[in-house]
Amino acid sequence: MSEPQLHSSIVALVSLASGIASKHPDMGLCQLDKLRQMGVPEAHICSVIEIARHIRDEAAQKLDVAFDAKCCAVEPAKPKMLNIAVKAEAASCCTPTASGQSCC
User: Fold this and answer.
1) Cα separations in angstroms, 56 against 8, 39, 90
2) Which of 4, 40, 56, 79 is the most buried (most CB within 10 A)?
3) DSSP string, 12-47
4) C-alpha distances in angstroms, 40 versus 23, 34, 53, 76, 89?
């Protein structure tokens, strides 16, 4: 017995988010037209984009903090433009986006 397939709008949203979060050169841009043609509300698309960017930026900050902690004679980098609380040790699985969206 085969499992039911995900709805095409869910696949497109996942593809869009993963493209943004992974810094893929295409960033899921082709998914935008598909999502709009399927009638996915623009607010949902914007939420997915915000969450994906937040995850991407949070991951980059955590990598920088971990690298700086291991690096000789370099003070840990201070986040400049992002408003993401980053701790070197393991904390909760995620922090909310700037607008309060949960990424978990």
Assistant:
1) 24, 26, 17
2) 40
3) HHHHHHHHHHTT-TTTTHHHHHHHHHTT--HHHHHH
4) 23, 9, 19, 42, 38
Q: How confident is the model at residue 2 (pLDDT cuts 50, 70, 90)?
A: confident
Alpha carbon distances (Å) from 25 to 3, 10, 22, 33: 32, 21, 9, 17
Residues 19-46 have pLDDT tens digits of 999 989 887 888 999 999 999 999 999 9
Amino acid of residue 41: P
Helix axes 29-37, 8-21, angle to 10 degrees: 160
What SS3 state is found at 97? Answer: coil
User: Would the pLDDT of 51 be above 80?
Assistant: yes
Q: Is the pTM of this model over 0.90?
A: no
